[in-house]
Design brief:
The complex is a heterodimer of chains A (339) and B (793). With 339 residues, chain A is an alpha+beta fold. The radius of gyration of chain A is 38 Å and the shape is elongated. Chain A is built from 12 helices and 9 strands. Chain A has 2 domains: 3-87, no CATH class; 109-336, 2-Layer Sandwich (BirA Bifunctional Protein, domain 2). In chain A, helix 1 packs parallel to helix 4, helix 2 packs antiparallel against helix 4 (54-84) and helix 5 packs across helix 10 (312-320). In chain A, strand 6 (243-250) and strand 7 (253-262) form a beta hairpin. In chain B, strands 28-32-33-37-36-35-34 form a 7-stranded mixed sheet, with helices on both faces. A 5-stranded antiparallel sheet of chain B has the order 5-4-3-6-11, with no helix packed on it. Chain B has 6 domains: 2-38 and 158-183, 2-Layer Sandwich (Phenylalanyl-tRNA Synthetase, Chain B, domain 1); 45-152, OB fold (Dihydrolipoamide Acetyltransferase, E2P) (Beta Barrel), CATH 2.40.50; 206-397, Phenylalanyl-trna Synthetase, Chain B, domain 3 (Phenylalanyl-tRNA Synthetase, Chain B, domain 3), CATH 3.50.40.10; 404-468, Phenylalanyl-tRNA Synthetase, Chain B, domain 1 (2-Layer Sandwich), CATH 3.30.56.10; 494-693, Bira Bifunctional Protein, Domain 2 (BirA Bifunctional Protein, domain 2); 709-792, Ferrodoxin-fold anticodon-binding domain (Alpha-Beta Plaits). In chain B, strand 7 (97-100) and strand 8 form a beta hairpin. The longest helix of chain B is centred in the last third of the chain and has 18 residues, at 770-787. In chain B, helix 5 packs across helix 6 (248-260) and helix 11 (423-432) crosses helix 12 (459-470). Classes of the chains: A alpha+beta (339), B alpha+beta (793). At the A-B interface, helix 5, strand 1, strand 4, helix 8 and strand 6 of A face helix 7, helix 10, helix 12, helix 13 and strand 28 of B.
Chain lengths: 339, 793
């Protein structure tokens, strides 16, 4: 018996007793490192093989292989033993302790609705356009066919700057800017902030969000408008929601309509939210006024189209039953983290 | 605008229920906003004669009466002072149900202090007819006993409608009746308007000196009127639409205004100096005291109705304090005029006075109606106040405006509405709306709009009429086709949405703040000076007066608000527009990203490891992760000195070689009074700079399938040596196959710091041999010792 075989035998005994008392996977891994690891015993012995006289090589080689396999077997056995052994009581975890939760972020309810609207309309072929919030009178009023002495131009209702520009009162100027820079057909929605000179209260803010829609093409009719709004309503509130168009007046559309959804709260039976009418006014719409088309250089004899606009805060308040608009701008995390 | 159903019925027969009527109105663009029923007396209240009255045996103020209600005689206990035998009064018999605001109230057989009572005799208030509750309502004693009282006082309903600004013709009963007739396929009829002929000339009675502002002025004299209370029907009519009755002459002017939409004014002739009126521009500084007691100083832009000396009325807006009709008035000058709408609107708004009259004038009245309304008012004044006509109608005007003649193509109507409405129906709708239709051919017609329809100017306006009357519910729903008119690459918000979702994925909660702030909030961001701020000319308050130059001030406001509510752990962000006047700093409008971080890392805190506070490196790591998510490779952090941040606790961020923003621990001067012990960290990044540098993931990069080998190096270095210095040095040395450098230990002591790095080597094609790695590692250690001047440990 040569020195190598002897070392193997010693190692086997050693390993056997170590494996027997190994109490965890760390101890087992240490056995592997000591004997089989890159700097362990067996790789070292394999380097010594060259020194073994030829007649002993066969026997030594066999002992080496057997020894190595036995070590591996000891490791496997210990691993299995550990796996089979029930955890001792002293190691048991209190599984009822709270999990270490991941802090995840929350999208603001107004953004949730705005993104949802944008995506619904994207699916219907619209893309999102945008425009500045500090706007000029031409884009916000003149080009939209607003009479010179229309009350909405009054400094009582609209924020002005010294240079005569204003904070846009609606997202409609984006229509004008888009049409100015694009040849028809045009199919856009424009979500964004708008400003009215209202003192903030439960239903008013000095700014809020609208989403504007515009489609200009050949042969666009009110039936197209109605159908797009119906699709929007169904996608937003499910197949049961009804819509109705009511005649109304806006300077930039003719014919103009307001559109109502059957009340989301009561299903149309009548409740305080819909003031017992069964309907909730969602926004204004209509066929783009020929004067507006002329203002951007589109020929109203060739092109026609519709525009619509809706208030995002209102949709968010309805969806989540938020009673007060101010909660949306207070940013209390107990509010924000609900959505 | 209030409509009374009874009043409306004077002009058009309404053969449908109230609900149907309201529905039709709303669906025709006359939106019904509220309904209020009044005076509906429940069935069961009948006329009864009190036969006997005896004192209640057990009460000082009650009586026991026997009451004949026609088919029977009832015993009723009553507390009213006037339940005397012989009176005919309303009697609520057993089973009558009153609907009161407090709920239903049913009359039952009952005992009052031991005496049986078989009903209730009623006051006017109890029947909802007036506020009179002094005693029982006394009825005509000739009334047949048992007559239901509801037949004598039919209820009315006040219908509150929203009139859109284009439809001034709906600001009258007659105007609404016209549309109702069209909706109900019937005809609207005006009452007969007849007055005696009077040809007495009145030269000089009316002068119009400002024909640009006063388009038509008619005056008529009525002499020897007897001013007093109006008859009941007139008072009831006014009350039914929410007007307060005054005297008969004033009531008539209000009645006719409500009936025909033409505002009228009655001057007391005796109070007009020179007994004449002049429609003229006010003289600069001229004063008038209006009916409501306000004294106004006028300018030539204001139109007044003056007498020979002074303004007696602010034309179309309000009468002067002493111009009106009083009990002493005998002779009346009746004004029925047409004023320039924009001027009335401007005056009303400027002076802050509005009235039912200005409301109508500023929306535009019917040129033709001025004359008819004057006649109608004269008729009713003669009827209710007596007297006789004192002059012919003096009519000073600058000519009747031309009616709009509008060609209309039937195909165009159908194309825009999207229905197959027939030519005949289109013409029928126009005619039902009292529009004149001529030259009807197979393809088109010509419509002449009457002067009460200011809104009809173009074909599109006519198309709206067809859509409205034919019914928007006739418009079919068709398949929605998603025609693509532009590439999704042009979508302005997709990159923003993607960015926002990534910040949310990093655990930040999205905030929204107002765009306008106060000065302190605006200047919280030390990058901006007063001159850089964009200020509103007409803010609501100083709190909301300045366009926010950055998102910092309001974000800190929300941090403070949360902290004061004991929400101490905050991970907030906003992406919003910020505004700057100084184009050298920023464009006028830009999107900024603002992130704020403070508090404890874990919501659970039951072990030491879970007590960890957010620190500078958490925010830095969030930004690094964000850049990685956006595949921004070219970014670096640079030193920054900035009033926003605590000294030595902030870094600037450069992306693709451009300044993108900065982040750090917020300076204590900005968090004074915040009730927290946790430091607050904020990042402010310009969105456009980030988005320009962001790319989708690049091409696949092959990775090595061979094992890695690592070596640890630990050293002591002067405290001034930064991690960045070490990284830069090692990278410059370029050890072959070095894959990564990871700092795994660092501590500082007495001006020195000890740092330990793990260097990982790996080759793409083969397994590295220990010896070669050792050689490279030793060489690196040597140069670190010699060139970086660190002491290896």
């Amino acid at each position: 018996m040569n020195a190598i075989i002897e070392k193997i035998n010693v190692a086997l005994k050693e390993a056997e007793s170590k494996a027997a008392i190994a109490a965890d996977s760390v101890a087992i891994e240490q056995i592997r490192i000591d004997y089989l690891g890159r700097n362990g015993l067996f790789p070292a012995l394999s380097k010594e093989m060259g020194t073994v006289p030829p007649e002993e090589r066969k026997e030594t080689g066999r002992a080496f292989n057997v020894g190595r396999n036995q070590i591996q077997a000891l490791i496997d056995e210990a691993t299995n033993r550990l796996a089979a052994k029930p955890e001792s009581a002293s190691n048991a975890l209190d599984l009822s302790l709270p999990g270490k939760r991941w802090k995840f972020g929350h999208k603001h309810p107004v953004t949730i609705i705005a993104d949802e609207c944008a995506n619904l309309f994207r699916r219907m072929g619209f893309i999102v356009s945008e425009g500045p919030e500090i706007e000029d009178i031409f884009h916000n009023f003149d080009a939209l066919n607003t009479p010179m002495d229309h009350p909405s131009r009054d400094p009582q209702d609209t924020f002005y700057f010294e240079d005569g520009r204003i904070l846009r009162t609606q997202t409609s100027p984006v229509q004008i800017r888009t049409m100015e820079s694009h040849e028809p057909p045009v199919r856009i929605v424009a979500p964004g902030r708008v400003f009215r000179r209202d003192t903030p209260d439960a239903t008013h803010g000095m700014n809020f969000h609208q989403i504007e829609g515009l489609y200009i093409d050949k042969n666009v009719s009110m039936a197209d408008l109605k159908s797009v709004l119906r699709t929007f309503a169904t996608e937003m509130y499910g197949p049961k929601v009804k819509i109705r168009l009511r005649p109304h007046f806006f300077p930039f559309t003719e014919p103009s309509v307001e559109y109502d959804f059957s009340c989301i709260m009561c299903g149309g039976k009548g409740c305080p939210v819909c003031k017992n009418s069964g309907w909730i006014e969602i926004a204004g719409a209509g066929m783009v006024d020929p004067a507006v088309l002329k203002n951007v250089g589109y020929d109203p004899e060739i092109w026609s189209g519709y525009a619509f606009g809706l208030g995002i805060e209102r949709l968010a308040m309805l969806r989540y039953r938020i009673p007060d608009l101010r909660y949306l701008y207070e940013n209390d995390v107990r509010f924000l983290e609900q959505f | 605008m209030n409509i009374s159903k009874n009043w409306l019925c004077k002009y058009v027969a309404i053969d449908c229920g109230l609900e149907t009527l309201c529905d039709k109105l709303t669906m025709a663009g006359i939106e019904v906003e509220a309904l209020e029923s009044s005076g509906t007396i429940p069935p069961g209240v009948v006329a009864g004669r009190i036969l006997t009255r005896t004192p209640h045996p057990d009460s000082d103020h009650m009586s026991v009466c026997t009451v004949d209600v026609g088919k029977e005689t009832l015993q009723i206990v009553c507390g009213a002072p006037n339940c005397d035998a012989g009176n005919v009064v309303p009697v609520a018999t057993i089973g009558t149900v009153f609907h009161t605001p407090e709920g239903e109230f049913k009359i039952k057989k009952s005992k009052l202090r031991g005496v049986e009572s078989q009903g209730m005799m009623c006051s006017e208030r109890e029947l909802g007819l007036s506020d009179n509750h002094d005693g029982l309502m006394l009825l005509d004693s000739a009334l047949e006993l048992g007559t239901p009282i509801e037949r004598l006082f039919p209820g009315d309903t006040r219908i509150e409608i929203e009139v859109t600004p284009n439809r001034s013709d709906w600001l009258s009963m007659w105007g609404v009746a016209r549309d109702v007739a069209c909706l109900l396929n019937t005809e609207a009829k005006l009452p007969e308007i007849e007055i005696p002929e009077c040809t007495i000339p009145a030269p000089g009675l009316v002068t119009v000196e400002a024909p640009d502002l006063c388009l038509r002025y008619t005056g008529r004299l009525i002499r020897n009127v007897k001013v007093g209370s109006s008859p009941k029907w007139l008072q009831t009519a006014l009350e039914s639409v929410g007007l307060r009755p005054s005297n008969n002459v004033v009531d008539v002017t209000n009645y006719v205004m409500m009936e025909l939409g033409q505002p009228l004014h009655a001057f007391d002739l005796a109070k007009l100096s020179g007994r004449r009126v002049v429609a003229r521009r006010a003289k600069s500084g001229e004063k008038i005291t209006t009916l409501d007691g306000k004294t106004l100083t006028l300018e030539p832009r204001h139109l007044v109705i003056a007498d020979a000396e002074k303004p007696m009325a602010l034309a179309g807006v309000m009468g002067g304090e002493f111009s009106g009709v009083t009990d002493a008035t005998t002779d009346v000058l009746l004004e029925s005029a047409v004023f320039f709408a924009s001027n009335i609107r401007a005056t009303s708004r400027e002076l802050g006075i509005s009235s039912d009259s200005s409301y109508r004038y500023e929306r535009g009245v019917d040129w033709d109606m001025a004359e008819l309304a004057s006649k109608r008012a004269a008729q009713l004044i003669l009827e209710t106040a007596g007297g006789e006509l004192g002059s012919e109608l003096v009519d000073v005007n600058s000519g009747r405006p031309a009616e709009m003649v509008i060609p209309c193509r039937f195909d165009r109507v159908r194309a825009l509405i999207g229905t197959s409405v027939s030519n005949e129906r289109i013409v029928e709708i126009f005619r039902a709306l009292q529009l004149k239709v001529d030259q009807v051919s197979a393809t088109d017609c010509v419509v002449t709009a009457p002067l009460f329809r200011h809104d009809l100017e173009r074909e599109a306006d006519l198309i709206e009429e067809v859509a409205r009357i034919d019914g928007l519910d006739q418009i079919p729903e068709i398949a929605v086709t998603g025609k693509i008119c532009a590439s999704i690459r042009e979508d302005a918000y997709l990159p923003l949405e993607t960015l926002r979702n990534k910040i949310i994925a990093l655990g930040f909660d999205e905030c929204l703040h107002y765009s306008t702030v106060n000065r302190e909030s605006a200047l919280a961001d030390s990058r901006f000076a007063e001159a850089d701020l964009i200020k509103l000319k007409n803010p609501i308050s100083l709190e909301l007066a300045i366009m926010r130059p950055s998102l910092l001030g309001e974000m800190l406001g929300s941090v403070e608000r949360n902290i004061s509510r004991r929400n101490l752990t905050l991970k907030l962000f906003e992406i919003g527009k910020a505004f700057c006047r100084n184009s050298e700093l920023f464009p006028e409008e830009r999107f900024e990203i603002c992130m704020a971080l403070t508090g404890l890392k874990y919501p659970e805190q039951y072990s030491d490891a879970l007590q960890e506070q957010y620190d500078f490196y958490d925010l830095k790591g969030a930004l690094e992760s964000l850049f990685e998510m956006m595949n921004i490779k070219r970014y670096r952090f640079v030193p920054t000195e900035d009033g926003r941040f605590r000294k030595g606790r902030a870094l600037g961020v450069e992306v693709a070689g451009k300044t993108a923003g900065a982040f750090g621990e917020i300076s204590s001067h900005l968090t004074k009074g915040f009730r927290t012990t946790y430091p607050i960290f904020v990042a402010q990044i310009d969105m456009a700079t980030l988005l320009i540098a962001a790319h989708g993931a690049g091409y696949y990069e092959p990775f090595s399938l061979f094992p890695a080998t690592s070596r640890d190096v630990a050293f002591v270095a002067p405290a001034g040596l930064s991690h960045d210095d070490v990284l830069a040095f090692i990278r410059k040395e370029k050890p072959t196959d070095l894959e990564s450098i990871q700092l795994f230990d660092i501590f500082e002591k007495e001006g020195y710091k000890s740092m330990a790095y793990k260097l990982t080597f790996r080759n793409r094609e083969r397994t590295l041999v220990d010896a070669e790695v050792n050689a490279r590692f030793d060489k690196l250690k040597e140069s670190m010792q010699n060139k970086l001047k660190v002491e290896l440990r």
